[in-house]
Specification:
CATH topology of one domain: Regulator of G-protein Signalling 4, domain 2
InterPro entries: RGS, RGS_sf, RGS_subdom1/3, RGS_subdomain_2
Protein name: RGS18 protein
CATH superfamily of one domain: Regulator of G-protein Signalling 4, domain 2
Structural class: mainly alpha
Pfam families: RGS (PF00615)
Helix content: 55-70%
Number of strands: 0
Largest sheet: none
Keywords: Signal transduction inhibitor
Radius of gyration: 33 Å
């Protein structure tokens, strides 16, 4: 029996045309599920991006941060009274330092206490090799012009500190630290002692959650010199 394809050659042509057409359709069918999965993956990425932008994922990102400040709720009234005796006594106790740092955060001026803490850590360096990288970090974070957490220093103190960064000593930041300390003592500390959270601690109550307020006007170096004309650096 003769091959029907020889008798009817058009069948062979049709078959050859259908075969590539089948391949194309098969390729499209395979690609469709892949394309359908893309929107889902894109939506997941978008949700993850939005989640990472939430503020709670970035809280506490501070240089020299002292820790969670809610621990101040366990402070006794007797201990809180001691904080009012002197600014030095407040900072010498961890609970006092935490409570004061939390207060500065409500005024958006926590860079002052963070700088003071960083200087305290710097002076505890065990070797000269540790001083240079720490000094550069402190300078770039708190002192140089347009630093991300620039503190309020007079021109002379800033210049003296800048010149010693290349060969830092343990005393490199002493003048700058003392200046910031006095500014906090004269400006922020009195407001802390009259704040609602501190008064609550004196009465033995857990401090209420402080509301954020706009940055208050702090003393500048010039203000401080007017108030105390005998002040010299």
């Amino acid at each position: 029996m003769e091959n029907p394809l020889l008798l009817f050659p058009q069948l062979n042509v049709s078959a050859s045309k259908d075969k590539p057409c089948y391949k194309v359709m098969k390729s499209v069918i395979k690609e469709e599920p892949h394309k359908a999965s893309k929107p889902g993956a894109k939506q997941k990425r978008n949700r993850l991006s939005l989640l990472l932008q939430k503020p709670e994922f970035h809280e506490g990102d501070h240089l020299g941060k002292p820790g969670n400040l809610t621990k101040a709720a366990s402070v006794s009234p007797e201990e809180a009274v001691k904080w009012g005796e002197s600014f030095d006594k407040l900072l010498s106790e961890k609970a006092g330092l935490d409570a004061f740092t939390k207060f500065l955060k409500t005024e958006f001026s926590e860079e002052n206490i963070e700088f003071w803490i960083a200087c305290e850590d710097y002076k505890k360096s065990k070797s000269a090799h540790e001083l240079l990288p720490k000094a550069k970090t402190i300078y770039e974070t708190f002192i140089q012009k347009d630093a991300p957490k620039e503190v309020n220093l007079d021109f002379h103190t800033k210049e003296v500190t800048s010149r010693s960064i290349g060969h830092p000593l343990r005393s490199t930041f002493d003048a700058a630290q003392s200046t910031v300390y006095r500014l906090m003592e004269q400006d922020s500390y009195p407001r802390f002692l009259s704040s609602a959270p501190y008064l609550s601690l004196l009465q033995g109550r857990a401090p209420a959650r402080a509301r954020l307020r706009r940055r208050s006007r702090s003393f500048t170096i010039n203000d401080f010199q007017v108030a105390r004309p005998d002040f010299t650096l």
